[in-house]
Structures are given as C-alpha cells and as structure tokens.
C-alpha cells in the first residue's frame, strides 16, 4: 500500500478536485454504489428547493469506478482542510478510508460517503423523480443539471460506464429542452 494521501473521486471531484494533484489513477471501490442519494441544500439546491448530489452509498454487491488522486507532496494538510470545508458543509457526508483497486495495485484513499441516517439522505428515489429534481434545482455552485452533465461527460471521457447517470443526463436534457 502507498503512504501518500490519496482521495477517491466519484462525482464532481473527478472534474473539479480543487487541490494540487500529483497523480491520477482509475480506481474501483467495492461495496459502494455511486448514487444521487443526497439532497443538496447548499451547492446544487437550497433548503427551500433541494437539489441532488452524488454520494457513495453502501451496497455490498456493487462497485463504483472513479478516480484516485494522489495529493501533491506537502499539500496534504491544506487539501484536507479544503475538502472538509467543501464536503462536510452539512454533515451528510462521512469521511472514510476505502481500499481501492487500481491497475497498478491496491491503495487506500479518503472518500466522502453518505450518512444513511442523515436527514439529507434520500436513497432509492426513482430515476424519473431524480431527473425532475435535477432539471430544476439551483444552488451556490450553479444549476444541478450542470453538475450531472459534467460528471456524466467526464465519466464517459474516462471510459467509465454508469447507466443511471447516462439515462439521467439524457432525461434531464429532454426535460429542459
């Protein structure tokens, strides 16, 4: 295992890590599912009209493909502080260390996973309901649909298939014209 600080990106961190990256590797987290299972009341929605953001939801038989980022040496403390400010804004995410598989071997990475007992957790919403929410929500970082489309596009560029995100992307485009 590697002793550098690695961070697992499965959503917006893939296309907007906002920290100095020394290396990127495609990685898989087994036992987790990427899902729009968190109501966003800050970044992609509001308290009055929550949006949806991706989270890792525990699913024993699933696996989530994403990107492991090795933080640039000497930037670990600043990166942790920035990630905590960004990801732990409402305490719906939990910080966990995950064992990841990569083409060059296993590594351990920090990841932000959903707290299934938090009030913002909404796992199991039908895809059509997710699409309706994402099509119309807007938060401090912009329209919810832009978050979906950027994530889906970057996953496709990396060769990572995610049928739910692909369906949602097409459905939201149809809903907004």
TrEMBL record:
<dbReference type="InterPro" id="IPR013024">
    <property type="entry name" value="GGCT-like"/>
</dbReference>
<keyword id="KW-0808">Transferase</keyword>
<dbReference type="Pfam" id="PF04752">
    <property type="entry name" value="ChaC"/>
</dbReference>
<dbReference type="InterPro" id="IPR036568">
    <property type="entry name" value="GGCT-like_sf"/>
</dbReference>
<keyword id="KW-0456">Lyase</keyword>
<protein>
    <recommendedName>
        <fullName>glutathione-specific gamma-glutamylcyclotransferase</fullName>
        <ecNumber>4.3.2.7</ecNumber>
    </recommendedName>
</protein>
<dbReference type="GO" id="GO:0061928">
    <property type="term" value="F:glutathione specific gamma-glutamylcyclotransferase activity"/>
</dbReference>
<dbReference type="GO" id="GO:0005737">
    <property type="term" value="C:cytoplasm"/>
</dbReference>
<dbReference type="GO" id="GO:0016740">
    <property type="term" value="F:transferase activity"/>
</dbReference>
<dbReference type="InterPro" id="IPR006840">
    <property type="entry name" value="ChaC"/>
</dbReference>
<dbReference type="GO" id="GO:0006751">
    <property type="term" value="P:glutathione catabolic process"/>
</dbReference>
